[in-house]
Amino acid sequence: MNTTEDDPAAGAVTADLRLRVNDRSRPVCVDTRETLLDTLRERLDLTGAKKGCDHGQCGACTVLLDGRRVKSCLVLTVTADDREITTVEGLARDGGLHPLQEAFVANDALQCGYCTPGQLCSALGMLAEAAQGWPSAVTPTDAGDGEVRLDEAEIRERMSGNLCRCGAYRGMVEAIGEVAR
């Protein structure tokens, strides 16, 4: 950690970090108060995650941190040192779209597109959670076999932390259900 004398913010403390973003190691020096969202957008030019509310309420900034979905506007960058970060830019592989991206397009699961990167990252994280048997508020209590059936209600509940101002939810639910099957 360093205290920078010439920083306009009095007493700013910086930290030299190594972020692993989309399978690539990225050295970065950040203010210890900086959010992961700001680091991704302003320092690493990864603008897929959007700054919607900047309070963790809309989900437009959702990324995966060690495979778990997080609202990057609420995560301090210093806590992501040497952890795996996946943004929407890291979903496509070998020149082709990720199956979720393909399903979003095929099911008309986007309109303006502002929330889409966060929706995609959240959907990928929730599919992993369901595959691991994590229950949600609507998972039947008699589902004791550890399998989570991703019906419409289950998908809607698990995606409820990501808002879409355009109302493209129907297409999103269909796209996620298609990939889950």
Automatic annotation (TrEMBL):
Domain (2Fe-2S ferredoxin-type) spans 15-91
Note the Pfam families from the entry.
Fer2 (PF00111), Fer2_2 (PF01799)
Q: In which pathway does it act?
A: Alkaloid degradation; nicotine degradation
Which keywords appear in this protein's UniProt record, sorted alphabetically? 2Fe-2S, Iron, Iron-sulfur, Metal-binding, Oxidoreductase
Do you know which InterPro entries this protein is assigned to? Answer: 2Fe-2S-bd, 2Fe-2S-bd_dom_sf, 2Fe-2S_ferredoxin-like_sf, 2Fe-2S_ferredoxin-type, 2Fe2S_fd_BS, Aldehyde_Oxdr_Iron-Sulfur, Beta-grasp_dom_sf
What are the recorded GO MF terms, alphabetically? 2 iron, 2 sulfur cluster binding; metal ion binding; oxidoreductase activity, acting on the aldehyde or oxo group of donors
Record protein name field = Oxidoreductase
